[in-house]
Amino acid sequence: MERVWADVDVGKHHHHCVVVDQRGDERFSRRVANDESALLEVIGEVAAIGADATWAIDLHGSESALLVTLLLAHDQQIVYLPGVMVKQATRSYRGAGKTDAKDAYVIADQARMRRDLAMVRAEEELIVELRMLVTQRQDLVGDRTRAANRLHDRLLAVSPALESALTLGNRGPLVLLTKYQTPSAVREAGIEQITAWLREHGVRSAAALAAAVVRAADAQHTTLPGEGSAPNSWRARRRG
Q: How far apart are CA 77 and CA 110, in angstroms?
């Protein structure tokens, strides 16, 4: 059996597999579901074409996890071709447009010609778990940042002075906004009442925060159009 190079242009739900021989001629091209039985079938078909197969992927992450695990379990050699490298190489191939089949062919042919591609090896379970935890934390940080930006925008529409006085990356201002969201509400409560309420809810430096928001509220006595709907808007965001 001859030596062949197989590429899987990785996707979330489907991949496209292309196999080329030593001359760069296409021997196999098919769309395959990101499913265990479908992938095992393709691995078997490629093995029937060439006993000595090198697999190439352009994406090494969650989408390719099942494929890579199955290939490694079957003692297949895998190399990684970064997307930037694929994009640059595609320009030198004939044919206009971008398709999964074309990308898969380019990756397989590049794997055939290049000797500088990184090998994909089995990862320890701990590394995989840590990567998943880091990704999850990045998502949570991103969600928190987006929520803080929305609150800043809402505050700015109600009171620029109040928005400037609150650092929404800290717990205290966020707790404050669950009860006092407008200048009029802050002025009506006053420093002592706000301080007592913040202390009841475990906010540090409650007196300093209360004094700062009351000063900000006193700086603006003009009611802006968005102030009337602000409390309902915040309650809706908290429920969401």
A: 15
pLDDT one-digit tens code per residue, 23-66: 888 888 889 999 999 999 999 998 888 668 888 887 777 788 88
Are the CB atoms for 108 and 19 separated by under 8 Å? yes
Q: Give the C-alpha separation, 167 to 173, whole Å.
A: 6
Q: Are 168 and 151 in contact (CB under 8 A)?
A: yes
Total-model pTM: 0.50
Q: What is the pLDDT of residues 91-122, one digit of tens each?
A: 667 664 567 777 788 878 888 887 777 778 76
SS3 98: coil
Measured from the Cβ of residue 234, the count of other Cβ atoms closer than 10 Å reads 18
Residue whose tokens read 């935890």? 133
- Of the candidates 216, 118, 123, the one whose C-alpha atom is nearest the C-alpha of residue 167 is 216
Which helix (H) or strand (E) segment holds residue 133: the answer is: helix 125-158
First to last CA, the chain: 60
